[in-house]
């Protein structure tokens, strides 16, 4: 057993000290944080210029109630249409909005003369503002007392809370939206893990083959142990890298986010939300999805359960796939030659991503169910299903199948491996791999 | 139980899908000898060597090491320099040598002590912290040789050891190999370079088409098969001629 430890240690030490490892380990969290922050930053810095729109309000009802925002500024004018159009064209302002006299009875009588290209978001903003004002004006015609107060009180946003009946108990399940998001994130983590680190095992084998170092090693260590040592060594690299990423993302996130969003901005938003929540009472304004998300994040049982499954599927999936990648690596002389033999390995991984997207529609559809049982697709697909709440036996059976197939796969891969590492120069076909599997050793 | 033969191979057969690499091959390797394993390319030499190294197993037949069946731990007592050999290009020389030494069962400390001694002997101490891809091929071969013999194995197996060496270094290597034999090691020496066989081997086996077609002491073989030639032709018959004739099946006994 000492020899396999040496193989693992060498694999780990060499990979971790590589420049490419250090660079990706540092860059990826920065990229991830940047990606997470991008939408917020775009919202903050990259919104369009403020558009000035002159308003000719022939009805006299609409213009006083129009609200300006960061994108659109309305400016009532008493000029005629021709004058206004000329002046806006000269001043290069956005355009002229004309509201007809009979707009209350004929809501189609609203016209926008734009000097340049218009945009859907501006048109939508104008339409919704004008509609809102017209609706309120119409309501006023009924002469209801305390209208403003009534309007404020009836304004409602519904958010759905989902309960799932499980073993006769009502249990608050994650709403489908949260479950789907968690599922997709987990599945993507798995996908990345299988493909990235699996391919790393293959490259490592090819590298040793090219260095002609393999025969020297297998005179001290059996090919089977060499293969297993490489697989486990790279598994350690993966664990190490992911731990660093987790720490870096938390640290970078923790340092960068407060600097990007000024305290008064954050405070303002939070304060407003808190005020709303207080005003509208417990069941009111605050988003129920947010409450659920919070309760999911703090539900230790739920998180532990998902983490345990994640670790089991990552391990099982990685072992299964890396064994196949190792076999392919042993059979070829270069990464280019590996393309063809690699295809049957990568197809199920990519397929499982497509099936995973079906999980969002129906986590119990037959195709989804079977793909979460078949070992080649089960890690990604089952990980997407689990947050939706499925019977316990399903992941258990699927894990048993996965680990059993790993054992069979390692056995087959080792058979290919010990023949493949001595084959140089010839392009290997599937037929040959099949032949190698049947060699007696 | 000790025996005079370090390796005894009894009727070993090894077949692959379409061809038989070794067919009923038997031979014995006396302790302390330099044993030449000869034969044309594809004759089965490398397969035989891999069987002795436990890299592959024979389909039938037995391999005895020191009089008993070859055990997994015996690889620690064998040093093997394969024909397809190389080092990790990106690893530092010293670190890499320690890795290989530990694979052969040495402790880290012992490995360092022994390596330092060998590096000093070859005058290559300055290479310790250099990466292998900064070394020339001949330099890397020296490191590889040290790694092969470092754990002081009882049995050394060299497959085409001189390829890649210039004549001066080849000579240095030859002397080291003979020195190891003088200190009690047995050397198996696989090659098709006949002149080196004549210089250093005392026993040979000639393998052709998966069969052992000629085996024995070098001086006896030369006497047996070379005698008549020595009379008819003025030159001393070389092992090279015997090799070619044996492979072609034209070998005839010198004396009748």
Largest sheet of chain A: 4 strands, mixed
Strand order of the largest sheet of chain A: 2-1-3-4
What percentage of residues of chain B falls in helices of 4 or more residues? 25-40%
Number of DSSP helical runs of chain B: 8
H and E order of chain B: EEEHEEEHHHEHEHEEHH
Number of helices of chain A: 16
Question: Would you identify the CATH H-level superfamily of one domain in chain B?
Answer: P-loop containing nucleotide triphosphate hydrolases
Radius of gyration of chain B from the CA trace?
19 Å
Give the overall shape of chain A, derived from the CA principal axes.
Answer: elongated
Broad structural category of chain B: alpha/beta
Number of strands of chain A: 6
Query: What integer is the average pLDDT of chain A?
Result: 80
Give keywords.
heterodimer, A: 441 residues, alpha/beta, D-Maltodextrin-Binding Protein, domain 2, 2 domains, four-stranded mixed beta sheet, two-stranded antiparallel sheet, 16 helices, B: 256 residues, Rossmann fold, four-stranded antiparallel beta sheet, 10 strands, 37% helix, 25% strand
Summarize the structure in words.
- The complex is a heterodimer of chains A (441) and B (256).
- In chain A, helix 6 crosses helix 8 (223-260) and helix 12 (335-359) runs parallel beside helix 14.
- Residues 263-285 of chain A have low confidence and may be disordered.
- Helix content of chain A is 67%, strand content 7%.
- Chain A has helices at 2-16, 19-45, 81-91, 120-140, 147-154, 176-210, 214-218, 223-260, 263-280, 288-297, 300-331, 335-359, 366-371, 378-385, 393-420, 430-437, and strands at residues 51-57, 72-76, 95-99, 110-114, 163-166, 169-172.
- Chain A folds into two domains: 2-31 and 172-437, no CATH class; 51-148, D-Maltodextrin-Binding Protein, domain 2.
- In chain A, strand 5 (163-166) and strand 6 (169-172) form a beta hairpin.
- A four-stranded mixed β-sheet of chain A has the order 2-1-3-4, with helices on one face. Chain A has a two-stranded antiparallel ribbon with strand order 5-6.
- With 441 residues, chain A is an alpha/beta fold.
- Chain A is elongated, with a radius of gyration of 31 Å.
- Chain A is built from 16 helices and six strands.
- Chain B is α/β, with parallel strands linked by helices and 256 residues long.
- Chain B has a domain at 5-84 and 153-248: 3-Layer(aba) Sandwich (Rossmann fold).
- Chain B contains eight helices and ten strands.
- Chain B has helices at residues 45-52, 93-103, 108-122, 137-149, 167-182, 194-200, 218-232, 239-248, and strands at 5-15, 20-30, 34-38, 60-65, 68-69, 78-81, 155-159, 186-191, 203-208, 211-217.
- In chain B, the strands form two sheets. Chain B has a six-stranded mixed β-sheet, with helices on both faces.
- In chain B, strand 1 and strand 2 form a beta hairpin.
- In chain B, helix 2 (93-103) runs parallel beside helix 4.
- Chain B is globular and about 55 Å long.
- The model of chain B is unreliable at 228-236 (pLDDT under 50).
- The chains are: A alpha/beta (441), B alpha/beta (256).
- Chain A binds chain B through residues 2-3, 6, 10, 14, 18, 208, 211-223, 418, 422, 424, 435, 438-441, and chain B through 16-17, 53-57, 59, 75-76, 78, 80-82, 84-91, 99-100, 102-105, 144, 147.
